[in-house]
Design goal:
mainly alpha; 73% helix; 335 residues; MetI-like
């Protein structure tokens, strides 16, 4: 991707974020309910209510409220949470790392599992095992992540209670973290006890998020591999006596990974959105779980900050996917 198209993409990203800000701001204002009523006592006087509305700018017109909020966001001030009475940016900074670690762990699992199964499915082409693999993959595609989450809770939390069903880290693990990136910090410190406990708590959420992604990768990559196996350079390598596994991995895979990469980037953004429900099911202390609490409490500043954060993540992932695709395929660099 050349410099000029990249600048264009960044400009479009800012426009997109502005559109997201407008939409979420307007939608939250037309939803019935008074956020001030959620945080004030029944004995409050009209003067108390007016003072609280003035504090959060809710006594102004919609246009004035939006400009006031947008100007504050531009300065890095996302406001104060109505329900938690804390700075929104601080709350997001505390919860976002947990969601990112969970999402990237699910991405790694989905890529590894999907890639290996796609290669295996390609090697099983035109064998009795192929329809069985296709049926199982279609089943995994049809089941959404939150259904996997509930099934995993019943399986590994109730019938075979071998994994923790809630939280991020057992309180009994003696560790004091300097950053909110618990897993990365534990790996850097070689704290194997903390790493093991963190991975145990992440296992079921990662499976719930990663299984549908793996199924999508299997279908897309397998089709691309089968098409690549018909190309002349693969046929030539086969004539030279190269084994089927080497043909797939060494010759076909590098040319089949492009379309899969693009689709994986798109699906990864959907998966991050899916963390909202999955985190809630497992009581995982991430940004998605906090988003549900913010909606229940009609915490306007917190909801707006979380939605903008998710929007920025989606845009960043799409740009990163395009950059990686351009590096893998230089012909796209000027596209």
């Amino acid at each position: 991707m050349a410099v000029s198209p990249l600048i264009t993409r960044l400009g479009l990203a800012l426009v997109t974020l502005f559109g997201v800000a407008v939409i979420v701001f307007c939608l939250l204002r037309v939803v019935p309910g008074d956020p001030v009523a959620m945080m004030i006592s029944p004995s409050a006087t009209p003067a108390d209510i007016a003072a609280l509305k003035a504090r959060y700018g809710l006594d102004l017109g919609l246009g004035a409220q939006f400009m006031l909020w947008l100007g504050a966001v531009a300065r890095g001030d996302f406001g104060t949470s109505i329900s938690l009475r804390r700075d929104v940016l601080e709350l997001i900074g505390e919860r976002l790392p947990a969601t990112l670690e969970l999402a990237f762990a699910a991405l790694v699992f989905g890529i590894l599992a999907g890639g290996m199964l796609a290669i295996f499915g390609t090697l099983c082409r035109r064998t009795p095992l192929e329809p069985v693999l296709d049926f199982l993959n279609g089943l995994f595609l049809a089941v959404p992540d939150f259904v996997w989450a509930l099934a995993l809770v019943l399986l590994f939390g109730v019938f075979l209670p071998v994994l923790p069903i809630s939280g991020r880290l057992d309180p009994s693990v003696p560790v004091a973290f300097a950053t909110p990136f618990y897993l990365l910090e534990s790996l850097a410190r070689l704290n194997l006890a903390a790493v093991g406990d963190l991975l145990a708590h992440m296992a079921m959420p990662v499976l719930a998020l990663g299984l549908p992604l793996a199924a999508i990768i299997v279908r897309t990559l397998k089709e691309a591999l089968i098409e690549a196996m018909l190309q002349d350079y693969v046929l030539l390598a086969r004539l030279k006596g190269m084994s089927p596994l080497r043909l797939v991995v060494q010759e076909a895979l590098r040319n089949a990974v492009g379309p899969t990469l693009t689709l994986t980037g798109v699906q990864f953004t959907f998966m991050i959105g899916g963390t909202v429900i999955v985190e809630r099911i497992f009581a995982y202390p991430g940004l998605g779980n906090m988003a549900i609490d913010a909606v229940i409490n009609r915490d306007l500043p917190l909801i707006q900050g979380i939605v903008l954060t998710f929007g920025a993540l989606f845009i960043a992932i799409n740009i990163a996917t395009d950059l990686i695709a351009a590096l893998l395929n230089p012909r796209q660099a000027h596209g």
